[in-house]
């Protein structure tokens, strides 16, 4: 079963696809204070939950979503139609690192998708290339170490010691890349638990409802993810979403 399809089923009850609540998602987008007729880009948009909500908040904005997920785009189109923003949303089936948008954007998002560029710093470099000079904003969601993990935990998580910094170090990395932090949200333990229980539980339910090879693969993925979370990064890995402006 393809990883994109597993992710699609796992996020069915939590389409934000990050440990961020609905309220905090809208607060982050509202604090962007976008200008009239803003252009918005999401690199690694999945089902475009962030873009659909942004278009609802900014009724004269337009948005481009970039991803490789056909199933995610189907969900994005359905939700955009339900919210009445389909005419202002364009979806591009292409690697995030290969996308060229032509005109600059007022807001560029990459939340929980920095792996598409190889980490936070390459992501910030890529984002800068899409931003409107001076006034453009970036909304970037990234992991950080709540407390230093042991070598055993790093090995289980498949991470390198310097792959993430602590929270202060993560902000410093962004600012050293030429951005100023104008707002941010640090995901709470409750948001993390809601996200992870939803991810693993929703995928488990789908697997039990679909016996056969796909169901077995989905159930194995749910259990592997849950074990990695509960026995690995829970309490060690945090998540921060930073609203950044070029400095």
From TrEMBL:
Pfam families: Methyltransf_12. It comes from the Bacteria. The keyword Transferase applies. One of its GO terms (biological process) is methylation. SUPFAM superfamilies: S-adenosyl-L-methionine-dependent methyltransferases (SSF53335). CDD domains: AdoMet_MTases. Residues 41-134 form the Methyltransferase type domain. Transmembrane segments: none annotated. This is SAM-dependent methyltransferase. It comes from Nonomuraea rubra. The lineage of its organism: Bacteria, Bacillati, Actinomycetota, Actinomycetes, Streptosporangiales.
